[in-house]
Amino acid sequence: MTKRIRSKIARGSGELAILSLLAEQPLYGFEIAKQIGERTGGALKFTLASLYPLLYDMEKHGWVEGRWQANHAGRDRRYYRLTPGGRRQLAPLREEWRTFFQALDSLAGVSHA
Amino acid sequence: MPDWKKLVGECIAPSALPSASHNEVVSELAAHLEETYEGALSQGLTEPAAVALARQEVSDWHVLAKEISRAKSEENYMNNRTRSLWLPAMANVILAPGLLMILQKLAVQPHVLWIGNMAMVLYLPWLITLPLFGAFGAFLAKRAQAHLVNRLIVGLSPALAVVGAFAVILPASLVIDRHLLTNFPFAYFALTICNWILLPAFALLLGTLPFLRQPNTLARTEA
After folding, report:
1. CB B204 within 8 A of CB B156
2. Is A79 helix (H, G, I), strand (E, B) or coil?
3. CA nearest neighbour of B149 among B63, B85, B106
4. Where are the alpha helices (DSSP H) in chain B?
5. What is the pTM for the complete model shown?
6. Does residue A88 lie within any of the structural domains?
7. Residue B147 gets which letter from DSSP?
8. pLDDT confidence of A68, banded at 50, 70, 90?
9. Residue B125 sits in the same domain as residue B199
10. Cα–Cα distance measured from residue A2 to residue B189, given in angstroms and rounded to the nearest whole number
11. Do B101 and B189 fall into the same domain?
12. How many domains is chain B partitioned into structurally?
């Protein structure tokens, strides 16, 4: 698999991960990265450099919206919440990834590996 | 503790980002580094190790600044709604009536259909091409990742523009000529609406329909 394809799959999976998390509650960047790492057992890991370009891109597409507000420690953080457009994006994105993994499974038996 | 904001500000020059978003981006990235650093300290790392761990979040600041700039610049230049709705709709609203005007200039004769004593003027060559305009607009909107409703609006935009024009012209005409409704019976208005709104809308819809499927976002991310 070329680096280009790997990076595109990573980007697509990153979008799905972020949209799924924000569908539950608004979070700021550090929390998004932390929760993705924790909830995937470290399989998916976002650094600052990989997270923010993706977040800003998703904001540009109107899927998420960032707004400054104080966190539980009273510090100002930019919280991202899912927009109606992002919510509409989530279902087909989930379906596409499900189809993608089913196709990969039928080809390579990845779910039994 | 390092001054993370200063560090990020030095790594991402003001010229690297649109001025409106530079401060905000620097503050946000600095806050992220600060929490990474504090998290590392709370896990028992020494201060130099915590600083090093936080710094590992970005391997190449130049690349990061470029990627953020790309995202932010496009956002400032043209927002998503403009790209996915207004521009394709405007193109469609200009091009479809534009073709009708060209046909009229070329003296293409309309087909006149008589319904009782009322004439329905049909520019059949124009009506035949309208599905292409519907398809063109919906394609542009879909390419800009417009959701289903916006794709439909863009596809039907030439007909919707006529609805808008009627909504302005009709009340204005009634103000100017109070006897308008007496002089022109309801059937005449119904025929006009059918001729200039419903028929074109139907033709546009035929072209729009194939583009109303959900977008292939996985394909988009791989494009």
Report:
1. yes
2. strand
3. B85
4. 4-11, 19-42, 47-55, 61-77, 80-81, 87-105, 124-143, 148-155, 157-176, 180-183, 186-193, 199-208, 217-222
5. 0.58
6. yes
7. -
8. very high
9. yes
10. 63
11. yes
12. 2
| Token pair recorded at residue B102 | 């060209």
End residue of a domain, out of B36, B60, B77: B77
Burial of B152 (0-12, 13-18, 19+ CB in 10 A): buried
Between the alpha carbon of residue B16 and those of residues B67, B73, B104, the distances in Å are 10, 10, 52
Assess A101–B contact: CB distance below 8 Å, yes or no: no
Q: How far apart are the first and last CA of chain A?
A: 18
Tell me which residues of chain B have a pLDDT lower than 70: 74-80, 180-183, 214-223
Contacts of B29 in chain A (CB under 8 A): 48, 52
Number of structural domains (chain A) is: 1
Chain length of chain B: 223
Say yes or no: B28 and B126 in one domain: no
Containing domain of residue A79, as a range?
Answer: 3-107
What range defines the domain where residue B18 resides?
A: 4-77
* B57 lies in the same domain as B136: no
Residue A86: both structure tokens together: 């992002």
B125 and B88, same structural domain? yes
CB contact under 8 A, B216 and A96: yes
Partner-chain contact B31 A88, CB within 8 Å: no
Task: Report the pLDDT averaged over residues A27-52.
Answer: 93
Find, among B109, B216, B35, the residue nearest to A31 by Cα. Answer: B35
Q: What average pLDDT is seen over chain A?
A: 86
Q: In this complex, which of A8, A53, A77 lies closest to B68 when CB atoms are compared? A: A53
Does the beta-carbon distance from A52 to B68 stay under 8 Å? yes
Mark B75-109 as b/e (b = at least 16 C-beta within 10 Å): beeeebeebbbebbbebbbeebbebbeebeeeeee
B168 and B94 part of one domain: yes
Domain for residue A112, yes or no? no
CATH number at residue A46: 1.10.10.10
